[in-house]
Amino acid sequence: MTILGIETSCDETAVAVLKVNPPLYEASEGHLGQIEVLSNIVSSQVKLHAEFGGVVPNLAAREHVKNISHVFETALKKASKTGNWKLETGNFPIDLIAVTHGPGLGPALLVGIAFAKTIAMTHNKPLIGVDHMRGHVYSNWLKPIGEIPNSKFQIPNKFPAMNLIVSGGHTELVLMSDYEKFELVGETMDDAVGEAFDKVARLLDLGYPGGPAISKIAENGDPNRFPLPRPMLHSKDFNFSFSGLKTAVLYLLRDLKEKGVEINDQTKADIASSFQESAVDVLVQKTIHSAREYGVSTIMLSGGVSANTLLRNKLKIATEKEGLVFFCPPLVYTGDNAVMIALAGYFAHKKTGAVDPDAPVGTSWQTIEMQPNLGF
Ligand code: KG4
Ligand code: ZN
Asked: Are 200 and 125 members of one domain?
């Protein structure tokens, strides 16, 4: 099955082609290495939004409109071995189109959905709307272009699994009891952890997006110079809160300035390092607690913040200490991309056999609508 993925929920215009050969879904022993990425095109608008310190929804939509046809054409061309899959000729053997229908920014989502509907209608292809967050989860099954997993141990195949999904808009613990069965067990009560990285980066004048900038300068920082709180670490539930941690950094900076301490590169590195340490500590400990509570065999990490080296390393060590298996996506799939959307489309399609997972079998692309607040 060859699937076209389309993603425009935030500030990346992404189109990808993915080939999945059954019996992947059946998860039978030794038959899991059947996912092949044919193309993965991502056009990032990050520089455009950097000027505003965050993503501006209408600007994002305008850029998606400008870029999507070119990104699509490039993805088709890359995917075809001969380079001759083309929109104009209708020559592209795609079996299913998967588009992100939520969660995300309304105006941005609409562009991808309208584009996907147009292709589906004019070329008579089935279309499925998929959940962006499920896409992040499935990024754990992906390998970079040209690589195909050659052993069942290289991709997740044991359930139940606990997913820590960390992005700019979400921080969620999601129990996965099978390929298509999800249950939200915890989430942030206020800011998402990626948002906290972005806000702290702004306080330290590091620009947008803040996550990569914080983790970079934190490499030279002392995580113990400025002890910061670890919010909700001991709460009985599996929820998070990161806005207090960001405010703690704000007060720390104010106090240091009042004391006449120079906010030089070393001080910034120490603050970044302390902040990162606190955030990662809470994420890791809560994930492990939830894994124990639900008796899972696997822990998976995903979302934009899963690019963070400290988080990847600490969660891996903690997971293995519990005797559990750890997965995180290759760096190329931690941020928003359309390969993960294509794979989510594959699983949703397998589950229902319907064109739209939320609609009765037999309904068509007309029923797909954007769902900016879609949740698990
Ligand atoms: O999943 P994603 O690409 O977009 C959303 O769906 O939100 O996540 C973007 C978030 C941003 O907040 C960005 O600062 C954060 O991921 N991020 C990081 C790192 N790389 C990206 N946060 C911490 N460390 C990183 N290395
Ligand atoms: Zn995302």
From this structure: no
